[in-house]
């Protein structure tokens, strides 16, 4: 398929080093960073929709330089993104940087975040769409963990950081707290654990130990959230009860009690095959989120198992 008139740099993650877009151009492209163009906010930044002078729509991530850690976050994201390229990672087109302003210009994801699709009233993901999205995320993390000279740990896998393109293909974004490890994937310690409550692996939250297993844990929580539509921070989880302890109570015979009611209401989800699909998915989520990092499976195994679950489902 012939590409539209897009500058060559759009397709290259190395463009972050080669093409600069001026602050003035970004001002024009976002209508002075008008609130109507605001797509979302993160720990250190705000993301705006922007239309460049050549008509290309992009997303502009603007750092809040008043916040402690913002520049470190920007540098971490640049370091990761200049070395990675995968269809399930958000591509960086360019950067804009001066003394008072820092921004990344990234490909625009017209379907928004997974958070929106899971929790907004007017949106719905069917069973196959949910499986496909989780396969996309698994492939992105597999690439980061196993296809780099030094494994990359995302450190903040959650619905807000999974973005969907026009074809509902998922892309993992926001590498502001990512870590690049040594080639042997030996855990590194950091003084302050960053991440999102509910998704943080126990050893990362309590000791600041970072390894690829941290992402596997977060992925397991996200996988269970995806099919139960229950956030790990849901108010029902109090005291000792958490998403990871609540879900196994239903296995294997009461699985439909924890599955997202929207999936049951809108699809024929009560067939034995569908029920077995849910059981297999929840079991996979539990294998990812085991308490001890050495007991968790790898993202390679996750991607393979999820693909197998999908193929079985399609045969029904």
Automatic annotation (TrEMBL):
It catalyses: L-seryl-[protein] + ATP = O-phospho-L-seryl-[protein] + ADP + H(+); L-threonyl-[protein] + ATP = O-phospho-L-threonyl-[protein] + ADP + H(+). ATP binds at residue 61. It is an enzyme of class 2 (transferase). The keyword RNA-binding does not apply. Gene3D superfamilies: Phosphorylase Kinase, domain 1 (3.30.200.20), Transferase(Phosphotransferase) domain 1 (1.10.510.10). It is a single-pass membrane protein. It comes from the Eukaryota. This is non-specific serine/threonine protein kinase.
